[in-house]
Amino acid sequence: MLVFAALMNLFRACWGPSSPSDHQYVRTGSDAIGRRDGLMWYKDYGQHVGGEFSIAVVQANNLLEDQSQIESGPLSSLESGPFGTFVGIYDGHGGPETARYINDHLFHHLKRFTSEEQAISTDVIRKAFQATEEGFFSLVTKQWPIKPQIAAVGSCCLVGIICGGTLYVANVGDSRAVLGRLVKATGDVLAVQLSMEHNAAIESVRQELRSLHPDDSQIVVLKHNVWRVKA
Questions:
Q1: Separation of CA 75 from chain center
Q2: DSSP-based three-state secondary structure for 85
Q3: Among the four residues 19, 42, 148, 170, which has the most C-beta atoms within 10 Å?
Q4: Helices (H), 37-177
Q5: Of 197 and 191, which is predicted with more confidence?
């Protein structure tokens, strides 16, 4: 289940600002033009308001449980902006329902809260995450009588937003954001980790889960030498 917790990490790093004249709306989703090679779909080159991008998706299961999206242009419902680029990676597990729900709702919540605040901020991103989680919880409650298995479906949620010369990263789950930084002296690209995973294999995460569930001594269990959150 998508869990919104205090451990959601929000990082900001310097990013080259885009020109206002480049503010054109670009959307890349499941219907975007790209190429397919077996179980891999990819797009080698695309443009967003801050530059260029490439994207690839590899299907690991019989049913693709993951979703991803790139939204570039206005980040609110206001003509005045702000403008930027939103990237979302949703690693589903147990089924595709949660990842699809996030893909359909998170960005719209972000635009709504950005319109209210007239700016992107860590608080706006946090509100968008929480509204998405609450919406999915409501969906689970409604579908539980006829589809109880939906309660066992979940997704990680990793988001990056470039706006106003700032890169925001928000993460819930064990996906990871990595920044490639060019080392001019050598020409090498240095990988810089921007987010922290929420994985039961990490002691601090297990401690947080136990503190959030003091009445459940088995909230995290060791199965086959692997720490897991109790299903």
A1: 16
A2: strand
A3: 170
A4: 97-117, 122-143
A5: 191
pLDDT more than 70, % of the chain: 85
**Whether the Cβ atoms of residue 179 and residue 26 lie closer than 8 Å to each other:** no
Closest by CA to 32, choosing from 61, 70, 58, 64, is 70
Instruction: Report the chain's mean pLDDT, rounded to a whole number.
Output: 83
Q: Per this entry, what is the length of the chain?
A: 231
The rounded distance, in Å, linking the Cα atoms of 197 and 13 is 18
Rounded mean pLDDT of 2-28? 37
pLDDT band at residue 192 under the 50/70/90 scheme? very high
pLDDT at 116 over 80: yes
pLDDT at 32: 52
Specify the DSSP class assigned to residue 215.
T
Compute the distance between CA of residue 202 and CA of residue 205 in angstroms, rounded to an integer. Answer: 5
127: amino acid identity, one letter: K
- What the chain holds in terms of domains, given with CATH numbers, is 9-197 (3.60.40.10), 199-231 (no CATH)
DSSP conformational letter for 183: -
Which token pair is 39? 């179980």
Q: Would you call 36 exposed, middle or buried from its count of C-beta atoms within 10 A (0-12, 13-18, 19+)?
A: exposed
Which own/partner pairs from 199-205 qualify as long-range (CB within 8 Å, at least 24 positions apart)?
199/174, 200/227, 200/228, 200/229, 201/226, 201/227, 205/7
